[in-house]
Amino acid sequence: MFSLSKSPQRVFKKAPTGIVGFDEMTGGGLPQGRATLLEGGPGSGKTVFALRFLVHGARACKEPGIFVAFEETSERIAANAESFGWNLAELRRKQLFFIDAQPSPDLVQSGEFDIGGMLATIGAKAKEIGARRIVFDALDIVLALLPDAATKRREVYRLHNWLLEQKFTALITAKVGGDADNSHTTQPYGFMQFMVDCAVVLNHRIMHGVSQRNLRIQKFRGAAFDENESPFVIGPGGFDVAIARTLGRVDAKVTNERVTSGVKRLDTMLGGGYYRGASVLITGFPGTAKTTMSGAFAEAACKRGERTMFVSFDSDGKEIIRNLASVGIQLERFVKSGILRMVSARTITGSAETLLVRIKSLTKEHKARCLVIDPVSTLSKSGNELTAHGVAERLIDWSKADGITLVCTSLLDEMASQMTGGTPLQISTLADTWIHLNYLVQAGERNRGMSIIKSRGTAHSNQVRELILSDAGVTLADIYTAGGEVLMGTLRWEKESAERVAKEVAEVAGKLKRVSLDAEEAVLEVRAKSLQTELVAKKVEKTLLTRTTESRERELTTGRTRLRELRGGDAKSGREERHQ
Amino acid sequence: MNRRPVFKFRLFVADHATNSLQAVANLKTLCAQYLPERHEIEIVDVHRTPERALSEGVLMTPTLIKTSPSPVRKIVGTLSQTRTVLQALGLESQVA
After folding, report:
1. B19 contacts in A (CB within 8 Å)?
2. From-to residues of CATH 3.40.50.300 in chain A
3. Cβ partners under 8 Å of residue A89, min gap 6
4. How high is the mean pLDDT of chain A?
5. Protein fold of A14-106+113-241
6. Residues 103-142 of A with CB under 8 A from B
């Protein structure tokens, strides 16, 4: 009968190593209470890995550890680890014990011997400090002392059984020579790989003169793991495995907050600016003001009081500050106040992975919210063609996860046409906003044009704008299209001034017309008034005339009556009848 | 004869492991034959006093350390190859 509680695929408990990336790859760390074999060539980082595992155990998991050093003395190991800032001295007091077990060179052998004594010694020490983790660094040194393959095998089994008995989470490192890929067939202690529960291979290749370190988990009993080779870097913080986004990881926080691009007009074109946490790519040929655009962004970020880092692969930080000051972008004061950090990465050499790790750790150190990388295409320099794409992917992935607004510039190959487009890193497909700058050569001059190729999640203008750099900063101007041709620079200026003149002429003409109309109006008004007066006069005259006529008539009538009266001929009543 | 130096040996063993017991037996035989009356043997069991093995840097058992006369010598193994052991101890001339 099946019982759910006793699932055949029992999942090991994991002992976290604290190594960035590795714990994600293995789903938690090394198998707890089991042995892990760590193989690698000389200088592949075995000791650093092992030490990190112990330090993390002692510090974060309350699991004290023992480091058995077969090759280097514990003093040298501790001194080498100083640079990682692990503060071993403090740990060594209680939680981390080093056992120096370098065989003396003048050791004489006579007859059979075994490592039982060593295990007893270590076991006693482990009990004393309550160790849960143990590292055997360079076990191959011990195995080399053993006379034949059978003895080696016997001693390795003795060790393994002892480890399991003691329930230690053990890490055994061993050197593999030459090509790590087929080491299991060539190494005399290849059987160890079959014995242990987990095997990790580190290798160190040189491609086009650039060192590339890779880590691969060869086996991990009872657990799912990432089987691919993953690049890693031994950086200032120790061991850092680069992994791309693993499935099931929580998505980055997405906000609708906008941050200004530093160019007002561009913000309008983008509907308010870049999204916070977005990755912005500015592409263009050399001299198209990519750096200036990113400088404007950095300045705006600093003005908002956000910690910003400017990584330049092209020139020195001071040079950039000076050059940007000439176009009105003043970064000096922010560097002084410590809000802005200029990093000249021209001198950092190494693989793209190394660069990414350096940028990441510097960003973390500076607690930057805005990051400028100028230009990001440097990542794909010689020797890094294969890995650069992955690095760019991780760069964007990381900045998104941390909510950092990233502006990177990328140089386009002069020969590559704009249509085939894209950057050597194919970062253009990953970026959220892609702004392209180019030149327009016309009428004997070269002008800068800017257009937004894409901007995810925002309405954006489809217009090409002319980018003008002046000591007042970066401004964008409309361009003119005339007869199907785009006008920029002086042509645009000519067109603009022609329009200005035409407008002025029209204005003057208008004014003139108004004045003459005013005059005519005045004349008419005056005439209207005089006519009015005349009318009044005429009216008066007319009334006067009527009145004189009337009075005269009246006079005439009264005159006739009076005359008749004066003649006195008729009686008043009879006279009339008679008369008729 | 008595003016010749006394050999001081410290033999690290792992409890009753076969090779440890062999080493004890071999050392005793060797001393009896080549260093009669002028040897001291201290047997250290790493299971009982592991800190001593730790301080002496003993990895393998059995390990024989000749502490005196100088130089200090370390020999690992059951000491079964008498000739090698005598050479290491500077006693080749004793080999007949």
Report:
1. 111-114
2. 14-106+113-241, 258-492
3. A78
4. 82
5. Rossmann fold (3.40.50)
6. 103-104, 106-118, 120-121, 123-125, 142
Query: In chain B, where are the structural domains located?
Result: 7-94
Give backbone dihedrals phi and psi of A512, rounded to 5 degrees, phi first.
-60, -50
Cα–Cα distances in Å, from A505 out to A47, A206, A495, A508, A510?
A: 84, 73, 16, 5, 9
Sign of CA dihedral A140, A144, A149, A154: negative
Residue A143 distance to chain B (closest CA, Å): 11
B61 to chain A: nearest residue by CA? A117
Q: Tokens in use for B60?
A: 């393998």
Range B7-94: architecture per CATH = 3-Layer(aba) Sandwich (3.40)
Cα–Cα distance, A253 to A276 (Å, whole number): 10
Structure confidence by residue, pLDDT tens digits, B30-74: 999 988 888 999 999 998 888 888 888 888 889 999 998 888 888
Give A123 to chain B, closest Cα distance, Å: 9
Q: Is the pLDDT of residue A386 over 70?
A: no
> A470: closest CA among A294, A325, A333?
A325
pLDDT tens-digit readout, A349-370: 677 777 887 888 888 888 999 9
Condensed to tens digits (0 to 9), the pLDDT of residues A1-41 reads 444 444 444 556 889 998 878 888 888 889 999 999 998 88
Integer CA distances (angstroms), A533 to A526, A528, A536, in order: 11, 9, 5
Range list of β-strands (E), A124-273:
133-137, 169-175, 198-207, 210-220, 230-235, 238-241, 258-259
Place of tokens 């956000």: A306
Three-state secondary-structure class, residue A248: coil
Is residue A380 classed as helix, strand or coil in its secondary structure? helix
Structure tokens, A180: 């790590």
CATH superfamily of A258-492: P-loop containing nucleotide triphosphate hydrolases (3.40.50.300)
pTM summary value: 0.68
Question: Do residues B31 and B7 touch, judged by C-beta distance below 8 A?
Answer: yes
Measure the CA–CA gap between A232 and A216, rounded to whole angstroms. Answer: 10
Model ipTM value: 0.88
Q: For residue A375, is the peptide bond before it cis, meaning its omega torsion is within 30 degrees of 0?
A: yes
